[in-house]
Hints:
This protein has a 3-stranded antiparallel beta sheet with strand order 1-2-3. The mean pLDDT is 80. It contains 12 helices and 12 strands. The radius of gyration is 39 Å and the shape is elongated. Among the domains are: 58-133, no CATH class; 191-262, no CATH class; 270-342, no CATH class. By secondary structure, it is of the alpha+beta class. The longest helix is centred in the middle third of the chain and has 38 residues, at 150-187. The chain starts with a strand and ends with a helix.
Amino acid sequence: MYDPLVKSYYQAVVIRRSKKTYQRRFYESRCGGEQAALKMAQAWRDTIIAKYPAMTTAQFCAIVRANNTSGIPGVYLKTKANGRGAVESYAWVARIPLGTGKTRLQNFSIKTYGEDGARQRAIDAREEGLASLGNAVYKPDQQPMPVSSTMDVEQLHAMLRLPEERRKEQAARRNAKAQRNVQLAAKKQTAAEVAAQQALQKATSSGEPYISRYIGAVERSGFRVSIVRNGRSYRKSFADGIYGGATAALEAAKIWRDQTFFALPAISKAQAVTRIPAANTSGVAGVYLRREMVDGKRREAWVAYAPKQAGKLNRTKGFSIAKYGEKQAFALAVRARREFVAELGDVPHLPKHAARQMLFAAQKAASGSANANQDDDAG
């Protein structure tokens, strides 16, 4: 089916159990294609029918119908007209299901067993008939059969958890922002407080990447180095009182920073762009399924996106599923993405301005040293 609001085809699941309806849509644009959406829909259906099994024939036969007059399903009083035209009861009847879609009627004469005896025998016969059915499913030919593997069900649960996790993260961010706003509103800094804060910020600026100035009691001020690389923090403080003044403390901080920074493992841009974002459904970074309607016809293609580079236009390569087939188009898109990534070479990944500043300063120093050596050789 096609949803014009979402602009995507979807697989719909509708199951009714015990007068309750369970339904859900699986959009192809979110699941990663028609076959992936079908698998997710089947897995969800299989979890529902496993949690809420189909009604058995015995359960169906135990339902009291609106036209029942005895209070016992499948048991009713049989009457006939006598010679004087009056209607009189003459037997209690038990309708006994055979499990094949057919039923058998068993009569118990009131004249033989009496009113209560005939009724009780009919009830017993009905219960024995239901017990003989066991756990046979009602209309088994109309019940869906599970087709999903354990992996399909695990992928379904992982996909269903994503929106809930995103909602929790958004709620946490909103709460944190609200708390910050309350704190800021409570403070209501005066002009003098703002000026003092600006002066402190100026005093704590060292002018060096990754190094900040902290202000404490007399002879307890100093410089602090803080570097974060691949999720891990590297920090160390250099107090004026220990190193003999602010100038010596800053020089010691710079030496430790340089030794630590250039000794830390770095990743290249090519490695950084292979990280798969949460919204990706193809399993390959930079490869996405594109769908569009052209002249009323649906067109699909696997597309490879080139990593963004400063000073270069964004590039893509698309491979039509109609032309290459689902698997071949996907394989070509993956290969095109790898070619895009290979163009990056070994360029380091430096997302922080301080890291770029450090690297450029080192390169400039190395270039100046090389030029000086050439001048000495020439002399």
